[in-house]
Fold:
Amino acid sequence: VGVITEVGGETGHAAILARALGVPAVTGIRDATRLIAANSPILIDGQSGEIVLNPVVGKIDACLANRESFDQETRDAVGAEVRECVTRDGQKIHLYANIGRPFEVEQISRHHLDGVGLFRTEYLFLDEPVMPSFDRQRELYQEIAAALDNRPLTVRTLDFGGDKRPAFLDPQFEANPNLGLRGLRFSLMASQELFRTQVRAVLHAAKDHDVRIMLPMVLGAADLSQAIDLILEIAQQEECADLPAIGALIETPAAVFAIEEILAGSDFISIGTNDLTQFILAADRNAVAMIDDYTVLHPSVLRAVHQVIQAANRVSKPVTVCGEAAADPRVACLLVGLGADRLSMSPVSAARVRFAIRACHQRSLKELAEAALACHSGDAVVTLLSDTLPHTLPEF
Structure:
């Protein structure tokens, strides 16, 4: 019915999975297991982040009314999913899915999405006692790619570290994994055998399907080049004549500053707003004490996203925003104003995002984005969105 956690933020592993399943979740409720007695009635509002213990009748009635209103808006949005995602003044926006489990691929066609913009492959193996084999990975990737019916599947290589610590690699993690070996750095320095096995599996899946490789936590030209050289070496060993497209995930300040050289070595790029926000603001995405400070709407984060999008557009390289930020219709509209024309999100969020974008003019969203970039705080951006978007779309 719902999930409450004492630790973790809205972009942590548990929250991402709950969002993918469409389960209301509220994270970061300190001492929840002490404060909430067994079998006591509670209300969980996954939209506002509010939990009500032992609610009175009036509060229950208001909650039920809010839920019915939300469900009706969702039904309206779902009913319009067959329509193209295009702003009122004709700007086409491509919508992709973030997935982490094979069963989620069924939602791509259901929600009329353009493919998978982010396949979080590490979620498949977090509970595994042994390293995933080549055969198992190849079968999984081929099965998912085939189910997409010629839509692209963007496979992020294993992004272990932070709150993603598989059982078979647990001894290799450090006390502060968010600032230790993570993503591509972990693959190249601590577990190259695992990286090679995964790349082999992806290359075989790419022989018959549109499968692309995304490298996480890229810092600059050096680690990107090292990874691409390894992929080329493996492709030669596997006699793969045609390489899949290879892209970099931009989610560190270092990558933002090195964006031109990263673009020169990549076929495409994606922006991971979850970690980019964390590292720019020095606010752990899973730390309860930092929840109020962790926001993709902080002007510094928005300026970084804007800088990356502009750089990609200058050299005509595709750029997709694939963090959880794109699942929020308000933020998605702001991202379109910043120049994004490819958004990737949890499939269950796509209907409301599409509905919102179709109600807006891109020129108005561009003006909104310019105003947001000039703000001095995340709270000021939130206020700006709250004051502006309802005039465009009453549902906001």
